[in-house]
Input
Amino acid sequence: MLGDKAFSLIQELDRSQHGTLPPFNEDAVRQALEEIDSLFQQNVADINHLAEDDALVAGIHLRHAALERNKRCLLAYLYNRLERLRTMRWQLGSVLPSDVRTNLCEPELEWFAQYSSTVARYMRSLGDGQGLDLTVDLKPPKNLYIEVRCLQDYGEFELEEGEVVLLSKDSTHFLPMEHCQHLIRQGVLQHVK
Amino acid sequence: MANFYTSYYPNYFSVEDILASQDRVPCKFEVTVKGLGYLDASSGNEDILPGSKIELPCWMARPLCSSKRLPIVSAQLPVNYRERYREILSADACVVDLQKLGPHFYELGLHLLPITSAPDRPRLAALLTQVLRDRLRPIMDDAQHCSADETSQKIAKLDRLEIRLFRGGQESVRDRERWLDRTAHLLSMAPLLAASNARHKRKRQDS
Output
């Protein structure tokens, strides 16, 4: 049936777990584009003969419906991928994990770099030029210092006052919340009660 | 009828909506469609002849029936929305396996409204809301009380829309428990990483 290739992209998105990105399926995208192109060419040819043969209208309608459907599936595929990518910027920061990077296509990487720098520029401009990191304190903080346990050997971590903490596996620390939030979100530290 | 045709709910990019509108609808062609005989592979003709019956996806059936001049196809309701199944659903909606009937029972139903005959339309619309209303209470009940191992068994018979409601219910119960434990303020790993870590762990255990 027409439009099946483009639809398979949507199924792929639907099957991938919420928030994760499946590899960019360049092959299916290209095939869907080719289908759109051939539908369009056939329609153009039929429209030119419309004056002689009135019965072509039905076919044109049908192909046009298929063309629009293909377009919708492709755009939805790209858009939903970008949405997920954008969520990642806020959850993981400007550096993507390597397994996510390998699943992206070239324009998506470019988009992410641009989006990242736009967000960073905006955050620098806040608070009378002092800058404000909007990705910290997504939940209202209760204390300035929190107790954390280290889940992996991370190495040395320098706090803003110049103090250096060695984060080795299963060690616990009492750190300023502001500085270790990102590490908690990246799964290096665990917040304990 | 034409104003139904370009409505996308909840938006143009909605994955759920695209999935729902892929389901097939039995259609009968009213006019000859030239050069598209390959859609009906069994006929072997070059053109689609009037009177041939093909199951078309809902997204194709809708614009073709609502074409302004004369309709190109006439669509019928899929079996699941016809009288017999309606009787079953109105007898006791809670025991029906909507995963099997749908799994986009409600959303496809909305897409089918424009191609339903005018006197039947309000009845189908009323049926959809009534079915959801009947099933909602047990679903929310299960979402609040069933344990983690029971979940997969409970959602096996639910429509995709109902599964979303169910998950939402479970999530709010969990949030409430965290709040009662006074652990709601604890920071946690990004959900995305948590999911991928769990996957890696499972892989390592398998190997």
About this structure: The mean pLDDT of chain A is 88.
